């Protein structure tokens, strides 16, 4: 099971490390290995959240996620995305931007770092909306009940998530502008860009998330009708339309997953510059890490881990909330990537431990109930 799920990741790791040695020797090997570990540690919460969405898809769409999805994740976000940032920031053509990335690495790093506030605003808002919509929803299973119960009651207020997200964005942009004024106003014009990028992140979430949710609900309705009128539906050829609708639902959930992965990858791409400004090594290291995140997602789905450890999804969403706030803070202040990675690991680790304790309590309660039944039968 492990080899089947992680086989491609192991193969890509071997090829990536060999390519690193051929490209830049053992120093490059070390850099790529470090970048891979960085990406995995920063994106573990991504895998847990992805698994919650991916388990609703059939085997076909899971394969699409692992094939086309990984091409988008590795080449799109880890290789093309930084080049696009440079092209837009410096108003260069794609070929010139690639040439700059390969020939003038310091200038390339400077341009990507310069664009970080806008990237952080977009990704931060997208992730913040995921977190807010999760904590404001009333759920049967609650991890931190003392916090989640009152938040679920507040969640009954319409558009509360959007209002809070916009307030957070406004505070971030105003703080950025105020600090820019104090330091000579060099970044005052960028405060507007931060605001626009954050609103773009919010709109992206609402469109993609809204469409995936709509088609998912439609799919559930269709499945209920199909179950009730199975024979009639078969005669009228309705299974075909149900399959088409499932395709739409899966497509928009797949699109949502890709945007989610993009938002998670922002901190990894930016954090990678603390280790190297070589675009080739960056793509190799982050690409290997992205493969493991994808494989881990599928592993969690096939093992039913989220069903067995019910608080894992809660921990992952709290980690998303923390990452969202970290991204928004990094618009103005620098935060070490180790802190970013550790926050997610600690929250997910705590939720896993809570799940283990819960399972143990349930098992003990069932054992006591069985003992009482046996005693009663004996009497």
From TrEMBL:
Keywords in alphabetical order: Membrane, Transmembrane, Transmembrane helix
Protein origin, superkingdom: Bacteria
Sequence intervals crossing the membrane: 6-35, 64-95, 115-136, 157-181, 193-215, 241-257, 269-293, 314-332, 338-356
UniProt key word Secreted: no
PANTHER family reported in the protein's UniProt record: MEMBRANE BOUND PREDICTED REDOX MODULATOR (PTHR30238), SLL1022 PROTEIN (PTHR30238:SF4)
Record's protein name: DUF475 domain-containing protein
Species this chain originates from: Streptomyces tendae
